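Title: Prediction job returns without error message
Component: structure pipeline
Severity: low
Priority: P3
Assignee: unassigned

Description:
Job completed but the reporter wants confirmation the result is attached to the right record. Sequence as submitted:
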Amino acid sequence: MDTLKRYHPVHVTLHWLVALGIFINLYIGIFVFPQRGRGGSVLGIPMQAFHMAVGITILVLLLVRFVLRYTIKRPGDATAGYRFLDILAKVVHYGLYLSVFTVTVVGLVHSLQTQSFQMAFLGARPEFNGPPPGFNNAQPGFNPPAPGESPNRPGGRPPGGFGFRSPLLLIHRLTAYLVALLLGIHILAALYHQFIRRDNLFARMWYGSR
């Protein structure tokens, strides 16, 4: 294992696809939704549906990558030159796996509870007989729709979806911030290896001769 200089091309492809998906969904979730709500579209796809589709794709790719991590040979762990930094790198690495898995699963469960998934991908019509599971309609500002009225109208749900009347939505957003923090540390560590230690770490996670 230690004789390998690069990750297998399958690992490389999965790594960068997951990274791209994470960047896209972090940007949408942290910067776009709070400003514009769930309106708008990406490539002709409604913004909320696009966010969910990217999240589901990330989850599938993450599970595949986790399985292949233990079935395809890979290089040995890189060292930062200090035991503490090596331990921190492992904590951040596995923390990223766990937090990305958590944020996508919680987001998927929340979308199923609120029927957003069913309406976006299964053509279901909204059915509303009270607040979705996990919501609290006792808080001010929650205005249940009349029978047959879409819950997506203004006031039908928490403004922009970030009223945090759903514990799952709060967990989803806080975990997204954790993902952003760990991702930032991961990027700084990669830059440290590449430009301070000069061990050409980037080449390990790119295509080329093994």
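Comment from assignee: result matches the submitted record. Residues 9-127+161-204 form one domain.
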